[in-house]
Amino acid sequence: MTASSAPAPEPKLRLGGMALRNGLLVHGPTHWAASIRDENGQIAVASGPKPRLRGADRIPGVRGLARLAEAFAVLPLVKRALPTARMPFEDAAVLGTMGAAALAGALIRRRGAGRVVPEAAAAALGLAPALLALRSGELAAYHGVEHKSIAAYEQDAPDPAETSKEHERCGSHLVAPMIASNVAGAAVLRRLVASPGPLAGGAVALAATGAAVEVFVWCERHADTATARAIRRPGYELQRAVGTREPTPEQLQVGRAALDEILRLEGAAGPAAALAKSNAGGDSLEPRASHR
After folding, report:
1. Which of 17, 180, 254, 273 could covalently link to 146 via disulfide, CB atoms 3.0 to 4.6 Å apart?
2. Is the pTM of this model over 0.85?
3. pLDDT, tens digit, for every residue of 234-252?
4. In this structure, is residue 106 part of a structural domain?
5. Does residue 144 sit in helix, strand or coil?
6. Is residue 201 one of the residues assigned to a domain?
7. Half-sphere exposure of 286 (CA within 13 A, CB side)
8. Who contacts 222 (Cβ-Cβ below 8 Å, separation ≥6)?
9. What is the maximal distance between C-alpha atoms in the chain?
10. pLDDT digits (tens, 9 = 90+) for 193-209
11. What's the rounded Cα separation, in Å, for the pair 160 and 152?
12. 30 φ, ψ to 5°?
């Protein structure tokens, strides 16, 4: 009779997230969960099933755009369930910068005629709204909460405060691939079309985004290679310098509430899976909200 081997540990969920100005949104494979600290100092939590765009999973380039669309489709659900949740770009100055950056980028591209330096400058200018948004100390701190909470789950760390505020799957790692793919796409377009219009430019931007997401996924799968480390380096530096700040214990509590809720819904806590799905309302997209 052979000795029974120890049960293999359950695979970790692949979690993503988005920092809010007063809390955290976490994405799981099938659900989302958000937590904020409201005006009364209470932690409010909401959750629900994720909208899903099926049929694109096996199409390179398109699948990345589909996942991004799903992430943005969650935001109205969060706002509906938590009306006092403050989105990252929910600021007049940031919205104004978005408009100005788009206009300036269009002018640079028009005058640059597909040359590498102007295209790279226009693509980099698109970072301005995000950098302005992160000047808010709370948003940068909740970005740190996002990374620390997810890392603590992935590493089985008892205290998220002890984990790094930089994370290997942060969207900042899209920066280098996005700039490179936009430059390459614009250069090809200028060679094929003498005077490309806005529709052609929009198509190139979508294709460049899809390509950048594919590079992002490749880097995750080949994290130990020199190429992946080089591609991720600008993203790590952005996180370190401006994208994240060390959160307070109170902010980490908000992150813990969102993490606990997503693990409950995704069944990562074991027997609670059936109850979690029942409370979430099956396949309905109606969000669930509570206060703690």
Report:
1. 17
2. no
3. 999 989 988 899 999 999 9
4. yes
5. helix
6. yes
7. 7
8. 228
9. 78
10. 777 767 777 788 888 88
11. 5
12. -130, -10
